[in-house]
Amino acid sequence: MKNSYGLGESIKNLISLVYTKIFFKGARLIRTPIYVRGKKFLSYGEGFTTGYNCRIEMFDVYPSKGSKIEIGENCKIGDYVHIAAGEKVIIGKNCLFASKIYISDISHGDYSGLETASNPNTPPDERPLVTKPVSIGNNVWLGDNVCVLPGVSIGNGCVIGANAVVNRDIPENCIAVGVPAKVIKKYEKDTNTWRSIYN
């Protein structure tokens, strides 16, 4: 698809391109403004592109010398995408993310139901940070306002519909929608078609 930009947008893209070449070597285009916290824990592949006002945060919850957010080659994320990691968020190659998406492996508190779970009388920002790694496969498309919660794995080739809240694993080559997200279609390699699944 060929995009056509007006003069103002072309100037902003030129400024962002210069910023990208200086601060994000190897990326295709990082549009400003962008907020990055803990950049030493970020790794990304060639062709990485962002929209405006993205927020990428890596918290030093566990001591780590490696990356906490890994983004594969040719990933394109839209405006106002927020990705947060205290342990590990892995995003595969050739992913396309729409706008206003939230992906996180971290939560303020433990709500497991165990005796060690967080107490609701404790202010949320004083509860211990709990992490569960997140994995998103290759060729995944996330629609607008998708929320991916800690501990989730999304398989290769998945489509997650707009406004979905993903709180459990999604197998590869599936379309999932809703709150919580449920699989409604699966790609059949034998017939090269998407087959409806009724739950």
Protein architecture, described:
By secondary structure, the protein is mainly beta. It has 1 helix and 22 strands. The strands form 4 sheets. It has a 9-stranded mixed sheet with strand order 1-4-7-10-15-18-20-21-22. The longest helix has 17 residues, at 7-23. The protein starts with 6 loop residues before the first helix and ends with a strand. The model has no long low-confidence stretch (mean pLDDT 92).
Task: State the gist of this model.
The protein is mainly β.
Primary descriptors:
single chain; about 35% strand; 1 helix; 22 strands; mainly beta; 6-stranded parallel beta sheet; 9-stranded mixed beta sheet; about 200 residues
Q: Order of strands side by side in the largest beta sheet?
A: 1-4-7-10-15-18-20-21-22
β-strand amount:
25-35%
Number of helices: 1
The helicity comes to under 10%
Catalogue the unreliable spans. none
Give the strand tally. 22
Structural class: mainly beta
Radius of gyration: 18 Å
Shape: globular
The secondary-structure element order is HEEEEEEEEEEEEEEEEEEEEEE
- Main sheet summary: 9 strands, mixed
What topology emerges from the helices and strands here?
Elements: H1 7-23, E1 29-30, E2 34-37, E3 42-44, E4 49-50, E5 54-58, E6 69-71, E7 76-77, E8 82-85, E9 89-91, E10 96-97, E11 102-104, E12 106-108, E13 129-131, E14 134-136, E15 141-142, E16 147-148, E17 153-154, E18 159-160, E19 165-166, E20 174-177, E21 182-188, E22 193-196
Parallel strand pairs: 1-4, 2-5, 3-6, 4-7, 5-8, 6-9, 7-10, 8-11, 9-14, 10-15, 11-16, 14-17, 15-18, 16-19, 18-20
Antiparallel strand pairs: 12-13, 20-21, 21-22
